[in-house]
Amino acid sequence: MKPSAKNSQILLGSNRVTVYNNMPKRLFWTLRPELGLGGERALLLALVLFVGVLSIAPLARLAYAALVTNDGFDLDRIVDVLGGRRVLEATVNTIWIAVSATLISTVLGTIAALLCNLTDMRKRSLWVFGFMLPLMIPPQVIALAWVQAFSPASPLLGILGWSLPPGMRHPLYSMGGIILLLGLYNGPLVFLSVRASLQRLPASMIEAAHANGAGHRAATLDIILPLIRSGIFAGAALAFVSAIGNFGIQAMLGIPGRVPTLITLIYRRLNSYGTSALNDMALLALLLAVLTVGGMTLTAWLGRQGDQRVETAQRPPRIALGRWGLPIVGIAWLYHLIFLMLPLSALFGTALVRGYGQPVNFETITFQNFSNALFYHEGIRDAFLTSLWVTLTTVAVLIPVAVALGYVLTWRQGCIAQFLRMASEMAYALPGIIIGVAMILFFLRPLPFIGTGLYGTVWVILAAYMSNFLALALRPILGGYAQLDRGLDEAAQLAGAGIFARLRDIVLPSLAPAVMASAILVFMTAINEIQTSVLLVSSRAQTIGPMIIFLEEAGSSTLAAAVGCLMVVMVLVLMSGSLLLGNRLPEGVLPWRD
Amino acid sequence: MNQIQTNNIAKSYGQTEVLRQISLSINSGEFVAVLGPSGCGKTTLLRCLAGFERLDSGKIDIGGQTVSGPKRHLLPENRGIGVVFQNYALWPHMSVTQNVAYGLKISGVPKKERKARVAHVLDLVELGPQANRRPSDLSGGQRQRVALARCLAMESRVVLLDEPLANLDVHLRGALEEEFAAFHARTGATMFYITHDQSEALALADRVAVMDRGRILQFDKPEALFRRPSTETVAGFIGEGRVLEAEDIRPLGGGFASAIVLGQPVKLRCNLDQDARAHAKISFHPGDLHMIADAAPDGICANVTRATYRGAYLRANVMAGPSGAVPLSVDIAAPASLTSGQQVKLALNDGWVIPTTHPTCNHI
């Protein structure tokens, strides 16, 4: 195979001329002035513009409007608004709900991660899929499903005769209900973070503990938990951010249950006063932002205390559950039965009856709700089509932007890269409703050149989606970049390829699976989105996400349930379909894949 | 032409000075190796030459054109330099042909000419039959040849190699070293080869730059590094060198000097301008020490602490000198037996007086 010394002598003699006969061209090329310098500069400029216009500027406008009104900076007004009884009550509720729900999520997610990663539990992949499913279902649908769980149409409780007697206050319309549902809903976030930590835990650490005589219990408590501490707290921080900004559950349970929180207060103020109350809404949104960032920073700080860095090694062996196998697996699946099947079956049950409150049987069963939702209800159809094209446009724009942004964040240093990194992290942390308020403020006034404001049109929803989901689109792509050898890009650079050619020819094909995953994640989240669009929808521009709340508020529970069921089905199809990408994806990119 | 000239280049990351005032002058068509321990800055030096890093100060000229300097930075894509990466950086989604053709495609070479040139280059590195395979289907040696073919196709006049053998099995290395030598002979390109393995550097390069903590300690021909190290660090680094204190150095003329080492008079090599000194450092290698008859009147007395079988020879670790406190290594031809605790007598046949004022780079 390899050329012998003799061979290379021959090559030396005969081929030198052939190989170098177009030398002048290459030399000229080397001497060419610094062409192409514009490419990367232009890309950076475009990214800064994109992030600046869609994230930084609206948020700056929000902060400005919160603190400065037409009368200038007025401290009395700020104290007045923030010190009001209702705002105080909502603030205390918000903090209490977010903290309690985070505790539930953290315990739940940690236990689930330990079970899935350290034991030989059977049918693990299916269980993980079921555990991640609620996170992918829009929160308003989850809330609706739980509300239906106690209705006569609920197949599980209805058959047992445990349905709620008419007229009785629904037990979930309460502070406890909100906390429970938020805790369950965000458990998977902690699960993901803890599982990532567990996967980095070297086997030798656990084996050394066993060699020192520690049993499974002692090894878990004394070795594993301290080592995955940072993962637990990172997950808790995510759960906190998600709980405090979760509009769907807080609104669906809190408004009928008269448990005001900051997020529902903002929503109701907009509904009651319209845009005249924008300064106060901005102030409340700013308060929410401060609470969010404060809580997240505190949790992250707690996680760093005594953090132990461990190096990757082979994975620990799984603990055989042995005689405990049956009870533990039983409890694990019972969890799915209660917290997944119960509400979802109730949702389907309600969607199958003519009127709310009827039990499902051969006389009451009907597919009218589904056919209405799919074909006849004009509002739903329009809202769905709007959601669809806005979502597709968002995906089409965000994916290339995220690929380019990921390139800069992963492989470039300097102050512009730092700025982009900070901006994209901030956008990830802030609740969608804050982006919503910011977008109203930013686009309320007539735009230059166009002459009209964008508020109330579908364009402002599109802008909000781009701003809101950039960070989400970025995450799997950054994961893809982390696995990509930088040399591949540098080799292409040496071959003379400019930045755009490299992104197209080298980076994009190598990242293809991560890009697919990113597109699926953004699509799934945006198509059912509620947090941002609930503030931005108008009679002219509806999206499908808030439709459930409007239908429920209007008393069409069965139709709302049907729409919810269709969303769940769509999510299920997308999740299962994405599993077909299978082994081509970097680990951890699809959260529901074990 | 393709000479490389670096002028006092410096580069820091935060507080860490990675490159300190590096000046090198590499002739067109020369094969230069940069040798140093990991973390000495050699990879940063390569990345500066390729244009991936900007300089803090100094300038780099390649082929007479300033490519990096104050307020000037030619991007890597416009430098026309070939790099063979440590892991070869072959694009996994492209076939061997596509990998080799990519640079030509970017520079706008027409399809027909491109095809012919790629086929020709693949024949040169004997990869014709593998032309349509993916890099993942190739062996380590074949991957390296694809990486070389990529440089060949681009007709790079300067090729930088970043520890290209570090990830390979020992038995493959010898064969691949030959490939580099053949590539160099075939193309006449200026080669800049980064390695931490001195046998690679000494075997391949016309000249070797020894680097440590961001500085070039010595830039010289391999045999000069081995026989005439200019600093203690170089002396200790190359070929298991040993540095000892010597006394009473007296030049004898013609590049020789007499001295007292471990209490014994010896004749050493030295610089022509070596002056007489009471103390100096000398360097030698294990092969310069020989065992002599116990009855010999002179000789360094030593006490064997450990003898290790090395196949062709026996490596003896001894404690030597008047007080028996200087550890030395000595190689003894194979059929020999030594036991721990045995008394032996040694003679130093050759050595080099390390110049006290050492020019760091005498080839500028």
From TrEMBL, chain A:
One Gene Ontology term from the biological process aspect of the record: transmembrane transport
Subcellular location: Cell inner membrane; Cell membrane
Alphabetical keyword list: Cell inner membrane, Cell membrane, Membrane, Transmembrane, Transmembrane helix, Transport
Similarity comment: family membership: Belongs to the binding-protein-dependent transport system permease family.
GO cellular component: plasma membrane
Domain ABC transmembrane type-1 as annotated: residue spans: 91-299, 384-578
Name of this chain's protein: Iron(III) transport system permease protein
Database matches in CDD domains: TM_PBP2
Source organism per UniProt: Primorskyibacter flagellatus
Primary location: membrane
InterPro entries: MetI-like (IPR000515), MetI-like_sf (IPR035906)
SUPFAM superfamilies: MetI-like
PROSITE patterns: ABC_TM1
Spans through the membrane: 42-67, 95-115, 127-151, 171-192, 232-255, 281-303, 324-348, 388-408, 428-447, 453-474, 506-527, 559-581
Membrane topology: Multi-pass membrane protein
Automatic annotation (TrEMBL), chain B:
Similarity annotation: Belongs to the ABC transporter superfamily.
Pfam family of the protein (one): ABC_tran
Keyword entries, A-Z: ATP-binding, Nucleotide-binding, Transport
Lineage per the UniProt record: Bacteria, Pseudomonadati, Pseudomonadota, Alphaproteobacteria, Rhodobacterales
RNA-binding keyword on record: no
ABC transporter domain segment(s): 4-238
SMART domains per record: AAA
Protein name (database record): Iron(III) transport system ATP-binding protein
Top-rank taxon: Bacteria
Gene Ontology molecular functions: ABC-type transporter activity; ATP binding; ATP hydrolysis activity
Keyword match Nucleotide-binding: yes
PANTHER family for this protein: SPERMIDINE/PUTRESCINE IMPORT ATP-BINDING PROTEIN POTA, SPERMIDINE_PUTRESCINE IMPORT ATP-BINDING PROTEIN POTA
This protein's GO CC annotations: ATP-binding cassette (ABC) transporter complex
